[in-house]
């Protein structure tokens, strides 16, 4: 109980009176205002009591909600998704093993090559025109066929050292051969001089081959995307072709094209318009704006990757979620030659990796087999071997993992006017049979090199 003190000034009314101290706030109050002060404290206590009473049901509510197992449900869904991804990966591995290791397939490949060389020998006998170069070539090819027959593919599995969960990697060890394709190419699109007719191309860049061997071509200087059906004598315009411009229905130097085979639409890097667009039945939709795009690719999960040559980076977008800046997945650290930098990236492919590594070139510009000179298109086969369109060396080079230099598989000839000489190869692609397609920029054509395994 507060005890009266000598007359002092009341904290409330500021009058000299007999006052009583409040131990809580250490102020002096006259009797009247002390009563008011105590009433205020009682009201505050009642409010705090009410707040506590209101908080109690929330505790009970949270206890009830904890029984919904929301986190456990998420874990269960994560488990289901991982199991499904594992099943898909396992099926892909099974198909790869069957495709790579079947002894009958290996024998058939060797037999096909043997028959091809036998026909060459018959032709030599018939024409009776040959020299030491021809004889050495035939001898070397026979030795290689013997080696291939005695060394079938070896397939094994190993743990994935980069994964924090129990993942495996499929390792296919196989002797790689540089003469995998016929060196006489077939022109499958264009090749009728530079022009804008339906049987002509004008600086073809990126190409895409679908399951039916239809060829989709980014026809750069004709400002259009052209589709050439398998065996057709001319193409058909499926995007652009309405003159150079940035209006709907127009393109401005498209550099690459891919096909989203799930919804049968095409996605285009409209480079000079600084946008990525999607076309479906001649209807255009702008997916990404204000990007200095050049190359495109899409992974098996439907993520879209775009190279930005100005900002020296590759960005990734989730399908149907383009109203953002995407995520930088490579580069983005300025222009340079470090492993986390680019210098004007163009065509791209997608491959899981934690960091950048040099897989081709990296030894300065030049024409040696450990060098490249203005590399453009890049593609990867089912064995993980990397193929590069070595533009200014006029060749396509294959780089195998762990090798210090590449192998020329197409072009690289010093003599002109040869049908296997690609002058300025740009885009690369494979069809389902493994035939190699090359966009020949300077000869304004698409060439197909038939596989002869």
UniProtKB/TrEMBL annotation:
Annotated segments matching region Disordered: 408-427
PROSITE patterns for this protein: NHL
Renumbered ranges of NHL repeats: 365-397
Organism: Adineta steineri
Keywords: Repeat
Any single GO BP term: proteasome-mediated ubiquitin-dependent protein catabolic process
GO terms of molecular function: ubiquitin protein ligase activity; zinc ion binding
Name of the protein: Uncharacterized protein
Family annotation (InterPro entries): 6-blade_b-propeller_TolB-like, NHL_repeat, TRIM-NHL_E3_ligases
């Amino acid at each position: 109980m507060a005890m009266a003190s000598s007359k002092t000034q009341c904290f409330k009314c500021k009058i000299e009176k007999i006052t009583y101290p409040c131990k809580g706030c250490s102020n002096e109050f006259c009797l009247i205002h002390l009563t008011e002060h105590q009433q205020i404290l009682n009201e505050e206590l009642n409010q705090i009591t009410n707040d506590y009473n209101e908080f109690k049901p929330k505790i009970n509510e949270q206890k009830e909600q904890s029984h919904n197992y929301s986190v456990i449900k998420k874990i269960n869904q994560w488990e289901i998704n991982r199991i499904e991804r594992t099943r898909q990966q396992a099926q892909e591995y099974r198909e790869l093993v069957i495709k790579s290791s079947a002894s009958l397939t290996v024998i058939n490949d060797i037999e096909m090559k043997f028959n091809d060389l036998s026909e060459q020998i018959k032709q030599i006998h018939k024409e009776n025109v040959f020299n030491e170069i021809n004889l050495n070539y035939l001898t070397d090819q026979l030795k290689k066929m013997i080696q291939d027959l005695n060394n079938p593919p070896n397939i094994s599995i190993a743990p994935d050292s980069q994964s924090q969960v129990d993942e495996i990697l499929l390792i296919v060890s196989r002797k790689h051969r540089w003469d995998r394709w016929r060196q006489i190419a077939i022109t499958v699109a264009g090749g009728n001089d530079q022009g804008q007719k339906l049987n002509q191309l004008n600086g073809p860049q990126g190409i895409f081959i679908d399951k039916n061997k239809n060829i989709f071509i980014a026809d750069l200087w004709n400002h259009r995307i052209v589709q050439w059906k398998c065996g057709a004598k001319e193409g058909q315009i499926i995007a652009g072709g309405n003159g150079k411009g940035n209006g709907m229905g127009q393109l401005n130097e498209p550099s690459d094209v891919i096909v989203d085979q799930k919804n049968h639409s095409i996605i285009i890097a409209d480079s000079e318009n600084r946008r990525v667009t999607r076309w479906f039945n001649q209807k255009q939709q702008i997916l990404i704006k204000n990007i200095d795009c050049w190359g495109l690719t899409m992974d098996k999960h439907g993520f879209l990757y775009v190279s930005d040559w100005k900002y020296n980076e590759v960005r990734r977008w989730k399908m149907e979620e383009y109203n953002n800046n995407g995520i930088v997945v490579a580069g983005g650290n300025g222009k340079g030659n470090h492993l986390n930098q680019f210098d004007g990236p163009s065509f791209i492919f997608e491959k899981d990796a934690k960091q950048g590594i040099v897989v081709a070139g990296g030894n300065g510009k030049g024409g040696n087999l450990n060098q490249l000179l203005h590399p453009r298109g890049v593609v990867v086969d089912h064995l993980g071997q990397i193929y590069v369109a070595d533009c200014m060396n006029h060749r396509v080079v294959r780089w195998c993992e762990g090798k210090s230099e590449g192998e020329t598989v197409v072009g690289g000839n010093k003599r002109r006017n040869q049908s296997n000489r690609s002058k300025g190869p740009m885009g690369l692609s494979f069809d389902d049979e493994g035939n190699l397609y090359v966009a020949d920029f300077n000869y304004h054509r698409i060439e197909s090199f038939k596989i002869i395994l």
